Structure formats: structure tokens, C-alpha cells
């Protein structure tokens, strides 16, 4: 499991070590230099003579970059530090100069203009300075982004740094193999370290070397898309307490998946009840029931008017109401289908009364009671979450949910009591007692009609298989939801690696995906 901690948690864990004189910056910067050495070797086959440009901001993040630069200079690398703040880390600067590295202050003449003529002169020379800095960075083998790290204030980069990064990103395209490899120090500068925001301009990194612990912003969209590969450097921090946000890996999902023992029978393995689809829209019913069957449910009951189509595709499914261990409610249930909405409502009543876990998706979301237990999992996409929250008095649009998925998923959990699985390229799950996950397992090809119905059925099977545990320990529910998102994403890869997908193929890939996962786990 990949765990992440907030900047405050990391700083608190650093404090006792710093007080005891542990050289954290030396550890961080030598690991950073090691990463740059590897990049140089991969890119040019040699370290000596490589060109590295450091973007250096006012704090310790810049200090890390400068110390790493000193190390690289001693290895024969040509190092140029661009100081983007009036003052940069003193010791780091001295170390780089001692090692023979160059430092250049960059101003862009836009700030502090005095009298007109002087201002114009300053502007001209500043613009030239900035242009030269951009040229140097664009021509380097590696650019090290040490402008801001844990100390970044909300709102993103400002001033010279913002202008330089803007020009540099215009000059270089990520797919251009001749452009520099960007290595971010601790975090890409200017992202929301704790919330994954990307309010201003950010230099997209190919690699982020992060210190002590991963930060939530490295796992959350939109910032996660700017971090590249993330390499964690352990600093020996004692990070007590719960992590802020986690990401499950294959072994974690395998541990959570119920595997039948010799005494298993279909009822003990979990029966899933599915209220989905309509005669007009039978597809969702077929996909949700198929996914539940293929994910290994003991039995699947279908409730609704699309039974004929369901049986034509899945003869294993049993039609009609009966005892179930978990429900899947809402895929393909249209707002004008009173009969199916009535069945959803009565299943929801049962859920509140008897306490089975349930997946509440699509058309069932607007039938959700005021408060539900955490073993009810909502599975909205950003638009559906915005609608649900707006109906409860929050003024929020789809774009805002996409910009801050963790925040709004948390709000939905607080409002409803439910565990919330917010779908997207990164699927964010929030449950009780601060439990939160961000899963990035799916190929973008999975953004296809019906994929959500498959996820609902898959999660339903998992909840049915672990229904007693889920009801007993509500903090297990978000982990189960995250595991379902992982398996769903993996099934997308499995179904057609790097190519177009249709939802039926994703469902069909579930058994082999689970077999591979359980064999490795
Ligand atoms: N605490 C430690 O001992 C360690 C810290 N390390 C490094 O130190 C970093 C944190 O250092 P700092 O606390 O100095 O913070 P930063 O280096 O992130 O920068 C903070 C400085 O930037 C300014 N600033 C913040 N937002 C700004 C903005 N939007 N525009 C312009 N200026 C802005 C602040 O006023 C402050 O002067 C970590 O990210 C990591 O790279 C590592 O060396 C490991 C050990
Ligand atoms: N860009 C993306 N990359 C990867 N997965 C995505 C992306 N966009 C959406 N998904 C996933 O595809 C599925 C789409 O579900 P949903 O929006 O409910 O579609 P539908 O209602 O048609 O089934 C979700 O599991 C979601 O996480
Ligand atoms: K940085």
C-alpha cells in the first residue's frame, strides 16, 4: 500500500530528528542527486559533461536542489542554478559555489518598477535575463525543479518563477525526447501539496523525488498528472497516526478479496441483489449482473423488467426478490421509470432496516435517504456528485468536483454518512474516520459507456462476499471499494492492453484479472 501524509504530518515527524541533529537535508539532497545521476546515465549514457539546470526558490526546497547540484558538480556535471528569489538557501548556495557550480539570479524586470525610464531599462534587461534563463533550462539534459515544496502557499507560483515556468512549458513539450527531463524536488512546485490542486502554472515533472513520505497531492488529480513517476526517499521519519490518503496495490486488493474455502456454499459466499436497467435500457442490467457473476458472487438475483435480456446473457442469474447479502441499486434506472425507482426505494428501505451493504449508483443516487450507514457505498461520477451535493444545499458544479475530488467526496460522506467512491481517471474513495484512497489503476480507454455498471456489479459481489465484516467494521468498506476500483481498472488493462474497450469486455476480463491478482497476492 502506498501511504501519504500531509505537509503538517511530515513536518511534525521531521522535528524531533532535526532537533537531534540528524542531517535530513543531506540525506534528501544526496538521494536527489542519485536520481539525477540515473537520469543522466539513461539519457546520455554518461554522467560527466551532462548539463543540469536547477530552478531554485527561497526555501529549503531550493536548498535541496543546491546541495544536490554541488554533489553533481563534483561528479563532473555542468550545473547552473537559476535563483528565482532574491535570497536562496545560504548553505546550499555556498556548497554549490565551492563545488564549482554557477549561480545566476533571474529577475524579469516586472517587479518593483521605479521611475519610468529606469523601469523600462530594468524591464528590458530583466526580459533578456529571463529569456536567457529559459533558453538555458530548455537546452539542459535535466531541469531540477526546486522552487517550492512543503512550504508552498495556496494559489500556485507567482512572479519570476511563474513567468519562467510559463515560458519554459511553452518552449518544451513533454513528448519531445530532446527536451530536458524534469525532476521535481519533493513535489512539483506550486501544486497543492495536501489537496492535489494545481491553481497556477506548474512545470510537469517526469520524476518526483519525494522525501520522508508521499504527500496526498502526489496521488490526487489534477496535481498527480504533473508529478510523473514518484520515487520515495525514506528519511527514517516516525510517521505515527493514520495516513491522510492511501493507494492500494495488487497485494492489498488480493488480501481483501474473499476466497472460498472447502466448506463454502453459494449462500455463504454471498448473494447479490441487483436493481438495474429497464426494458428500454436493458444494457445496464446485463452489465451489472454479469460483473457480479464474473467477480465470483455465490448467486445473483435480478429485480426489474429486463429479466429476459439478463437471462439471455447470464443464465446463472435468478429472477425476483429474495434474501441477499448486498445490493446493487441504480445502474440504468431512468428518472421516469417509476416501477424501477419504486423497487430501488424499497430495497433502500430494507437496507436501512436490515443493514445489508449496498452500492448506490446512477439513478438510485437521487433516491438516497437523508442519512445512511457507511456500508452503503455511493458510486457517482463528478457530475452525479455535483448534483447530489447541490440537492443538499451545496453550490458546486461538475468542474469544481473534478478540480477538488477529495474535498467534495469528503463533503458527500459527511452529508450522507455513506462511503463515497467518486469515479474518474483517479477514483477517490472516502469513508468513515478519515479513511481515504486514490486509485489510478484504469486506462483512459475505460471512460466508456457502461463501465460504471460493471464497477457497480463488481463491488456488489465483493460487498456480498464480505458483508458481515463490512457491517461490523465500517472502515473496511472504503478499502473494499478501493479494491473494486483497482480490479476494475486492471480488468480494463487486461481486456485490451493499450487499446479501445467496451464495457462487456471489461466484465469478461474480471475472472482472469482476479486469478492473476490472487496468484500474486
Ligand atoms: N524540514 C526539513 O528538514 C527538510 C525539508 N526538506 C525540504 O524542505 C522543503 C520545505 O522547505 P521550506 O519550509 O523552506 O519551504 P519551501 O522550500 O517550499 O519554500 C517556502 C518559502 O517559499 C515562500 N513561498 C511559499 N509559497 C510561495 C509562492 N506561492 N510564491 C512565492 N514564494 C512562496 C515562503 O514564503 C517561504 O519563504 C521540503 O519540500 C523539502 O524539499 C528536505 O530537505 C528534507 C528535510
Ligand atoms: N479518464 C479516465 N481514465 C480512466 N478511467 C476512467 C476515466 N474516466 C472515467 N473512468 C472510469 O470509467 C468508469 C465510467 O463510469 P460511469 O461514468 O459511471 O459510466 P457509465 O455510467 O456509462 O457506466 C468509471 O469506473 C470511471 O472511474
Ligand atoms: K519542488
Automatic annotation (TrEMBL):
AMP binds at residues 423-427, 452. Binds 1 potassium ion per subunit. Coiled coil: none annotated. CDD domains: YXKO-related (cd01171). It holds the Pfam family Carb_kinase. Residues 10-243 form the YjeF N-terminal domain. Residues 249-517 form the YjeF C-terminal domain. Keywords: ATP-binding, Isomerase, Lyase, Metal-binding, Multifunctional enzyme, NAD, NADP, Nucleotide-binding, Potassium. Its EC number is 4.2.1.136, 5.1.99.6. (6S)-NADPHX binds at residues 60-64, 186, 284, 332, 381, 453. Transmembrane segments: none annotated. The keyword Metal-binding applies. Bifunctional enzyme that catalyzes the epimerization of the S- and R-forms of NAD(P)HX and the dehydration of the S-form of NAD(P)HX at the expense of ADP, which is converted to AMP. This allows the repair of both epimers of NAD(P)HX, a damaged form of NAD(P)H that is a result of enzymatic or heat-dependent hydration. Homotetramer. Belongs to the NnrE/AIBP family. This is Bifunctional NAD(P)H-hydrate repair enzyme. The lineage of its organism: Bacteria, Bacillati, Actinomycetota, Actinomycetes, Micrococcales.
Amino acid at each position: 500500500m502506498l501511504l501519504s501524509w500531509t505537509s503538517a504530518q511530515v513536518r511534525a515527524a521531521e522535528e524531533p530528528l532535526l532537533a537531534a541533529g540528524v542531517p535530513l537535508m543531506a540525506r534528501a539532497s544526496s538521494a536527489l542527486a542519485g536520481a539525477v545521476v540515473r537520469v543522466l546515465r539513461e539519457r546520455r549514457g554518461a554522467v560527466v559533461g551532462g548539463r543540469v539546470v536547477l530552478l531554485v526558490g527561497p526555501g529549503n526546497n531550493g536548498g535541496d536542489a543546491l546541495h544536490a547540484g554541488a554533489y553533481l558538480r563534483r561528479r563532473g556535471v555542468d550545473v547552473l542554478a537559476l535563483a528565482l528569489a532574491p535570497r536562496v538557501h545560504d548553505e546550499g548556495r555556498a556548497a554549490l559555489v565551492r563545488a564549482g557550480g554557477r549561480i545566476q539570479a533571474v529577475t524579469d524586470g516586472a517587479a518593483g518598477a521605479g521611475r519610468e525610464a529606469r523601469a523600462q531599462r530594468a524591464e528590458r534587461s530583466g526580459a533578456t535575463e529571463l529569456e536567457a534563463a529559459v533558453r538555458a533550462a530548455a537546452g539542459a539534459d535535466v531541469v531540477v525543479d526546486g522552487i517550492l515544496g512543503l512550504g508552498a502557499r495556496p494559489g500556485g507560483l507567482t512572479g519570476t518563477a511563474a513567468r519562467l515556468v510559463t515560458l519554459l512549458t511553452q518552449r518544451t513539450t513533454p513528448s519531445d525526447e530532446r527536451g530536458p527531463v524534469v525532476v521535481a524536488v519533493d513535489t512539483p512546485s506550486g501544486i497543492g501539496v495536501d489537496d492535489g490542486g494545481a491553481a497556477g502554472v506548474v512545470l510537469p515533472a517526469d520524476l518526483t523525488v519525494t522525501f520522508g513520505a508521499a504527500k496526498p497531492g502526489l496521488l490526487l488529480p489534477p496535481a498527480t498528472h504533473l508529478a510523473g513517476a514518484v520515487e520515495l526517499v525514506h528519511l527514517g521519519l516516525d510517521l505515527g497516526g493514520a495516513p491522510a490518503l492511501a493507494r492500494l496495490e495488487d497485494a492489498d486488493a488480493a488480501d481483501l478479496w474473499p476466497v472460498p474455502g472447502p466448506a463454502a456454499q453459494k449462500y455463504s459466499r454471498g448473494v447479490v441483489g441487483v436493481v438495474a436497467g429497464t426494458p428500454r435500457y436493458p444494457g445496464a442490467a446485463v452489465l451489472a449482473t454479469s460483473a457480479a457473476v464474473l467477480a465470483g458472487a455465490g448467486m445473483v438475483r435480478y429485480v426489474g423488467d429486463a429479466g429476459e435480456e439478463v437471462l439471455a446473457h447470464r443464465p446463472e442469474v435468478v429472477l425476483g426478490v429474495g434474501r441477499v447479502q448486498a445490493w446493487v441499486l441504480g445502474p440504468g434506472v431512468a428518472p421516469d421509470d417509476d416501477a424501477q425507482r419504486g423497487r430501488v426505494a424499497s430495497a433502500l428501505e430494507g437496507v436501512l432496516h436490515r443493514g445489508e451493504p449496498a452500492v448506490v449508483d446512477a439513478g438510485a443516487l437521487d433516491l438516497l435517504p437523508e442519512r445512511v450507514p457507511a456500508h452503503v457505498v455511493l458510486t457517482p461520477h463528478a457530475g452525479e456528485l455535483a448534483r447530489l451535493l447541490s440537492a443538499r444545499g451545496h453550490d458546486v458544479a461538475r468542474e469544481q468536483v473534478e478540480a477538488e475530488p477529495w474535498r467534495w467526496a469528503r463533503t458527500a460522506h459527511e452529508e450522507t454518512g455513506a462511503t463515497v467512491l467518486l469515479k474518474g481517471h483517479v477514483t477517490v474513495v472516502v469513508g468513515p474516520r478519515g479513511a481515504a484512497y486514490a486509485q489510478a489503476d484504469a486506462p483512459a480507454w475505460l471512460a466508456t459507456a457502461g463501465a460504471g455498471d460493471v464497477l457497480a456489479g463488481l463491488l456488489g459481489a465483493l460487498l456480498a462476499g464480505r458483508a458481515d465484516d463490512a457491517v461490523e467494521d465500517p472502515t473496511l468498506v472504503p478499502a473494499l471499494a478501493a479494491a473494486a476500483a483497482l480490479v476494475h481498472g486492471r480488468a480494463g488493462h487486461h481486456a485490451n492492453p493499450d487499446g479501445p474497450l467496451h464495457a462487456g469486455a471489461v466484465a469478461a476480463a474480471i475472472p482472469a484479472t482476479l486469478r492473476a491478482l490472487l496468484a500474486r497476492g
